[in-house]
Amino acid sequence: MEQTFEWFGARGLMLARTGSDREYAGAVTGCDGVELVLLSAGEIPRELAAGRIHLGVTGSDLVRDRLADWPDQVAELAALGFGHADLILAVPACWVDVETLDDLDAAAAAFRRRHGFRLRIATKYHRLVREYLQDQGVADYQLVDSQGATEGTVKNLTAEAIADITSSGETLRANHLKILSGGPILQSQAMLFAARGADWSNGAGEVLDRLLPVLGLTRPEGL
């Protein structure tokens, strides 16, 4: 929240929280007609897709994972330059023969033959991971849901590998995990999005046209 406020403030739009920490509203100065609502990062993709908010700041990873055909539902207005993190695949560091996706594919097939069930990958990014592995030809696996402490699922024997967001990799190393080579599934950061399905009539479109020049942005095609 603080970094978002700083980003807008540097461009002349001042955002401030009002009331107590338990209240979810704020004040906006610098452009008439703009109202501020504070939501969790995970709620914002859903609210954008439903058209209940016009603009939202959240991670690009959350939008891409939670919204099918996301470009049809939201438009990217700006990358904000903070909140950088990579969505990666990681396996136990002791798996000395598993360094690449091809190695993981072979290990997954061997795991299924040996144990009679598919290798488990713990993640909360089901859509992104499933599509990525499908594109890479990895088939013998199952995704298990993990909404917190994903790095600990291997140690707790509820998964054999993980797909999760990481910035420095320190937590992975602390849990004796290593990142597979070949680059991340997704490089994420905080983004400003606009809802394509929101009601831009009743003056909202005009407010957007006043707001975008303040931020140094232009209206995206189709909005």
Keywords:
single chain; 223 residues; alpha+beta; D-Maltodextrin-Binding Protein, domain 2; six-stranded mixed sheet
Describe this structure in words.
The protein is an alpha+beta fold and 223 residues long. The chain folds into 2 domains: 109 residues, 3-Layer(aba) Sandwich (D-Maltodextrin-Binding Protein, domain 2), CATH 3.40.190.10; 103 residues, 3-Layer(aba) Sandwich (D-Maltodextrin-Binding Protein, domain 2). It contains 8 helices and 12 strands. Strands 6, 7, 8, 9, 10 and 11 form a 6-stranded mixed beta sheet that branches. It has a 3-stranded antiparallel beta sheet with strand order 1-2-3. A 3-stranded antiparallel beta sheet has the order 4-12-5. The radius of gyration is 21 Å and the shape is elongated. The two termini are 26 Å apart.
Query: What would you call the structural class?
Result: alpha+beta
Could you give the count of β-strands? 12
Name the quaternary structure.
single chain
Largest sheet: 6 strands, mixed
Please identify the top-level CATH class of the largest domain. Answer: Alpha Beta
Which band does the percent of strand residues land in?
25-35%
Tally of DSSP helical segments: 8
Distance between the termini: 26 Å
Quickly give the CATH architecture of the largest domain.
Answer: 3-Layer(aba) Sandwich
Helix content: 25-40%
CATH superfamily of the largest domain: Periplasmic binding protein-like II
The overall pLDDT, averaged over residues, is 94
User: Low-confidence spans: pLDDT under 50, at least 5 residues?
Assistant: none
What is the total number of structural domains?
2
What's the Cα radius of gyration? 21 Å
Question: What is the string of SSEs from the N terminus onward?
Answer: HEEEHEHHEEHEHEEHEEEH
How would you sum up the global shape?
elongated
The CATH topology of the largest domain, please? D-Maltodextrin-Binding Protein, domain 2
EC number: 2.4.2.17
Pfam families: HisG
Pathway: Amino-acid biosynthesis; L-histidine biosynthesis; L-histidine from 5-phospho-alpha-D-ribose 1-diphosphate: step 1/9
Domain ATP phosphoribosyltransferase catalytic: 41-198
